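Q: I'm building a small set of examples for a reading group on sequence design. Run inverse folding on the following structure and report the sequence directly after it, with nothing in between.
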């Protein structure tokens, strides 16, 4: 009996330590509206939705000087943040604050972050050259009493440019580029879903025989895992 109580206490402790994040959205799109809203980002958003990926785009939010609290909450509730870096992204204080919060969520909630470099050189973002250098210089003149925040924006840009992402260049086929992004995000979400399954389900002494039995079929080369849903029930 004492041994059983110890096991129950251990199981209860392990359970209380595991608190999974509750995601409202699969993807949050961060972008400069005047650059890409009615072009690239709009097309990307539509393609993600057609794939069944729940994607947030801020078409209905009122823009102001400071980033809205409601938008910060959306970022926190999104599994992946996709940042569309375009020519004028850094000129927006709103976008710069979005970027800071995205990286905060990456550190605090293990949120995934993927950059898209749309007709811009990643090196310009990494080292703040070209339009990005000009934008940050204007921010420094505009906010002389808050230069530390501008430095944080610079660090966030450098960090973003060092992440694995996608680089769109002039004369590429945009629809093919978007299709590749959507397929990769779909696979990434699928893999993250598998990782959310506990290795040792509560109440069992080892790996679940149901999941163990399904594992070969899930990994079968002939299975199209992107478009097929599998339901698993755990009885006990």
């Amino acid at each position: 009996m004492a041994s059983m109580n110890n096991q129950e206490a251990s199981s209860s402790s392990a359970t209380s330590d595991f608190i999974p994040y509750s995601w409202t959205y699969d993807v949050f799109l961060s972008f400069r509206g005047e650059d890409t809203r009615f072009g690239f980002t709009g097309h990307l958003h539509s393609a993600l939705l057609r794939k069944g990926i729940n994607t947030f785009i801020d078409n209905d939010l009122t823009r102001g000087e400071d980033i809205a609290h409601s938008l910060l909450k959306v970022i926190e509730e999104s599994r992946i943040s996709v940042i569309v870096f375009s020519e004028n992204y850094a000129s927006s204080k709103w976008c710069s604050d979005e970027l800071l919060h995205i990286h905060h969520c990456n550190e605090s909630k293990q949120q995934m972050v993927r950059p898209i470099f749309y007709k811009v050189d990643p090196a310009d973002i990494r080292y703040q050259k070209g339009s990005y250098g000009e934008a940050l210089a204007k921010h420094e003149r505009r906010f002389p009493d808050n230069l530390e925040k501008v430095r944080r924006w610079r660090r966030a840009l450098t960090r973003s440019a060092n992440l694995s992402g996608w680089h769109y260049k002039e004369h590429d086929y945009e629809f093919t580029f978007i299709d590749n992004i959507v397929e990769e995000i779909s696979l990434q979400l699928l893999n993250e879903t598998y990782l959310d399954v506990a290795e040792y389900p509560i109440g069992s002494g080892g790996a679940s025989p149901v999941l163990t039995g399904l594992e070969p079929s899930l990994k079968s080369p002939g299975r199209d895992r992107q478009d097929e849903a599998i339901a698993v029930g755990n009885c006990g």
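The domain at 25-189 is CATH 3.40.50.10140 (Rossmann fold).
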